[in-house]
Amino acid sequence: MDKPKEEEAIPQIKPENSLPESPPSFPEKPRFRINLPKGRGVKILAGIGIGLVLLLGAFIVPAYTIYGKAIKVKAAAEKLVEAGKGQNIDAIKTELGSTKASLTELSRSFRLIAWAKFVPFLGLYVSDADFTIKAGGYGLEAAEITLVTIEPYADILGFTGGKVQGAESDGAKTAQERIDFLIQAIPDLIPKADEISQKITLARQELANIDPNRYPVKFRGQAVREKIRRGLAQVDEAATLVSAAKPLLEVSPYLLGIDEERRYLVLFQNDKELRPTGGFITAYSVMKVDKAKFEPVSSNDIYNLDDNYRPSLTVPDPIAAYIKGPYTLSKGWRLRDMNWSPDFAESMALFSQEAAKAGIKGVDGVIAVDTHLLVNLLDAIGEIGVPGFGNFSTKIVPECDCPQVIYELESFADTEGPVVWDPAGTGKIIYAPPNYDNRKKIIGPLMNSILANAMGQPKEKLPNLFEAAFKSVIEKHVLFYLFDETAQSAVEDFNIAGRIKDYSGDFLHINDSNLGGRKSNLYVTQEVEQEITAGKDGTIEKTVTITYKNPMKHDGWLNSVLPNWVRIYVPKGSELIEFTGVEAKEEPYEQFGKTVFAGFFQLRPEGIAKVTVKYKLPFKEKEALALFIQKQPGTDSPLYRIRVGKREEEEFLKSDKEFRLRI
C-alpha cells in the first residue's frame, strides 16, 4: 500500500499593509534635560541678571572716569617730585597746589563707587584705593606745613626761590651765620614739627590697612607687591623720623650750648679696626660748644690717656685671650678696649666713669665718630689743608686703594720699630719711630681745619654739608651718650644713641670685634643670608649664614689675618640647633633681653670665612613675621638676603631696618 504523500506547504500571503514584526525592545537611555523654570522663576533669574548688569555698569562707568582722574593725580605727583628735585620753593608750591586739586577731584569721583567696598573680594581693593586717597591727602597737608616751616631756612637744605630769610639772604652768608639763624628759630619749629607728625601719623594709619600680600608679585612684567611694600615701609620710616624729631628739637638748645656752654668728650673710633660700638678707640678730644659754635679744647692719643689710668677692672676673657699684648702680664682692663658692650650707652657709662679717674672731667657727655664722617664731610667740602701736615682729600690712592685721608692717617699713626735709649745712661732717646710719643697728634689740627672750613663755607655748599652730616648720623657713624636724662632720652628716640633695642618680634644683630687684625676691616666685606622655614604648627626655624671676604693681599701693615669675635643677638629663648664656622664658641647666654650666640674665627687675606647658626624661634607664627635688624655702628652697608620659601628680599643695610615677612 502506497504511503500517503505529505501535504504540500501552502505559502501564506501577507496583506500588503501588514507591519513587520517589532524587534526586541530595550530600556530607553535617560536624556540630559535642563528644566527651565517657568513663570515666576524666569522672572527672578531675569531680575538677578539685570541687577548684576546694572551693578556692573554702575561700577565700570564711574570707574573709567575715576581711572582718568587717577592718571591726572599721578602726572601731577610726578611733576611735584621733579619740582622737589629742582629744589625751587616757588615751583614746589605750584605743583603742590596742582596735585592737591587733582587729588580732591579724584576723591569726589571716588564716592560714586564707595558702595563697592562692601562687595566680597572686590571690596578689599576698592577699600585699599580709598585708604590710599585719604593717606595722600594727609601727606599733601604735611607737605604744605613742611614747606611753610622750612621756607625761611630752606637754603640750608639747598632750596632756592620763595622767601628765604627775606632781604638778609645773600651769597655772602656763611654756614655759621645760617646755622645761627636756624638755632634762633627752633622755638617756632617745635609746634610745626608736632603738626607735621600728626598728619603723617594719620597717613600711616590709613596705609596700615593695606595688605601687600593680596596683590600679585608682578603684573605685565612690572613689580607690584614689592613696590607697595617698599612704599608702605617708607611712610613708616618717615612717620617715625618726624615723630622722633620733636624731642630732639626740644633739647637742641641744651645740646648746642645756647643758654650755657657745653663740653663733650669726642672719641675717634677707627672702623678699619672694627670694635663693638664702631671701631677701636684711637684718640680723643674735648670739644667746647657755646651758642652753636664748636671749638676743640684739647686732643690726644688714647694710649697717653691709658698711661694716666690705673686699671681696676678685669678685662673680658675674649679680649685677653686674643689681643694678648698687655693682657699677657695683667688682666687689668685698659680704657682703649672699654667699648666692648654692643650697647653704646652701656659702654660709655663705663668708659666715662673710668676716664674720669685719668683726668677726663667736666664734660656733659660723649660723642663717638668714625672715619666715615670724616670722608663724608671732606666729600662735601673738598680738599683741605692742615698747617704742618699737608693736604687731605677723599681721592682714592693706589697705596691702599682707599681715600687719601685714610691712608695719611694710618701712615701717621704707624709706629712700628724699637725705641732706642742712649747707652751712656743719659735718659735720652737716640732713635724712635716717627710720632711714637703721640701717634694721633694730627687729629686735633685736622678737626680744627675741618670745622673752620665747614663753618666758613658759603651758603651754596650748605646742602652738601647738611646731607653729609645727616647721612653720617643716620647711618650710625656718629653716636651720642649724654649725662642729662632728657637729652639722652631724645637721642635714643631719634635712634642715634647706639642702643640695643627692645623688640617683640624676630630680631637680629650681628656684632664683630677685630681683636688684633691690624686695619683689615678696611677691606673686609660681609654678606648675611637668612633662610626662614615655617612648620604647619607655626614653628619657625632660621638659618643665618654670615660670609666674610677679604679680597686683598697680606701687606703686613694694614691688611693681616683678622681674628674676629662675633656675637649674634636673637630673640630671647631661641633654641640653638647648630653653630658652625667658628674655632671656639661660648654657650648661649642672655644679654639686653636677647639670646646671644658667640664665637671666634679667623679670616685670612684673599680668603673667605663662613659662620652659620641655625636656631628655632621661641614663638610661633603662621601668617606674617615681623623682623627687626640692627646695624652695627662703624660698618658701611652689608648686604642682607632674606628667604622665606621661594620669596626673597635684599637690602644693603645702611641703618636699622624693620621687615614684614609673609610666612
Q: Which quaternary structure do these chains form?
A: single chain
Regions with pLDDT < 50 over 5+ consecutive residues? Answer: 1-10, 166-172
Instruction: Give the fraction of residues assigned to helices.
Output: 25-40%
The shape is: globular
CATH level-1 class of the largest domain:
Alpha Beta
**Number of contiguous helices:** 14
Estimate what percentage of residues fall within beta strands. Answer: 15-25%
| Terminal Cα span | 114 Å
CATH topology of the largest domain: Aminopeptidase
How would a textbook summarize the main sheet? 7 strands, mixed
Q: Per CATH, which architecture of the largest domain?
A: 3-Layer(aba) Sandwich
Average pLDDT number: 86
Per DSSP E runs of 2 or more residues, the count of β-strands stands at 26
Number of domains: 3
How does the helix and strand content classify structurally? Answer: alpha+beta
Evaluate the radius of gyration. Answer: 37 Å
Describe it.
By secondary structure, the protein is α+β, with helices and mostly antiparallel strands. It folds into three domains: 54-255, no CATH class; 262-493, Aminopeptidase; 506-662, Sandwich (Immunoglobulin-like), CATH 2.60.40. Helix content is 36%, strand content 24%. It has 14 helices and 26 strands. The strands form seven sheets. Strands 14, 17, 19, 20, 21, 23 and 26 form a seven-stranded mixed sheet that branches. Strands 18-22-16-15-24-25 form a six-stranded mixed sheet, with no helix packed on it. β24 (639-644) and β25 (647-652) form a beta hairpin. α2 packs antiparallel against α3, α5 runs antiparallel to α6 (225-255) and α10 runs antiparallel to α13 (462-474). The longest helix is centred in the first third of the chain and has 47 residues, at 40-86. The N and C termini lie far apart (114 Å). It comes from Candidatus Woesebacteria bacterium GW2011_GWC2_45_9. The chain crosses the membrane at residues 41-64. Residues 1-27 are annotated as: Disordered. It holds the Pfam family DUF4012. This is DUF4012 domain-containing protein.
